[in-house]
Amino acid sequence: MKLLIVDDEVEICDFLKSFFEERNYEVKTASSGQAALTAAEQFKPNVVLLDIKMPGMDGIQVLGTLKKKFPRMKVIMVTALETRDKIEECLRLGADNYITKPLSLEYLENDVREKIEALTSSGAS
Ligand SMILES: [Mg+2]
User: Fold this and answer.
1) 123 alpha carbon to ligand 1 midpoint, in Å?
2) Is pLDDT of 124 > 60?
3) Rounded distance, CA 18 to CA 45, Å?
4) At a CB cut-off of 8 Å and minimum separation 6, what does 116 contact?
5) Looking at the whole model, is its pTM more than 0.85?
6) Does 79 reside within a domain?
7) Band of the pLDDT at 89, cuts 50, 70, 90?
């Protein structure tokens, strides 16, 4: 299963990449919104972990584009501060869930697995 991790903080990308690779996911990372869109085109991830707050194109803009182009791609938003308005906007744009930093890895892994199971049980990719 393919996972794309998007965060402008490279340490977070690296940390999550090793965490999920150890659990047999195929992982790519992107440290900007633009890089995320390119990676999504090329890598075709099943699930995207998407940081909201990034300089330039932010996670909300990326989410909008991803959901238009790849409606079946599962997107989990990652946010440092839980701003209700922003979260509502993400859910309206089709985000599949959101998690807040500091990240609970156990929760995150369960959520990624759940999204993948949903994809698998809903048939063809
Ligand atoms: Mg950030």
Assistant:
1) 34
2) no
3) 17
4) 1, 46, 47, 74
5) yes
6) yes
7) very high
Number of domains in the chain: 1
Residues in contact with 121: Cβ distance below 8 Å, sequence separation at least 6, in sequence order: none
Give residue 76 CA to ligand 1 midpoint distance, Å. 14
Q: What is the pLDDT of residues 35-73, one digit of tens each?
A: 999 999 999 999 999 999 999 999 999 999 999 999 999
Does the pLDDT of residue 83 top 80, yes or no?
no
Pairing of strands 47-51, 97-100: unpaired
| Ligand 1 center from residue 52 Cα (angstroms) | 6
Which of the 8 DSSP states describes residue 37?
Answer: H
Neighbours of ion ligand 1 (CB under 5 A): 8, 51, 53
Would you list the DSSP string of 94-113?
T--EEEESSP-HHHHHHHHH
Q: Which CATH number do you get for residue 19?
A: 3.40.50.2300
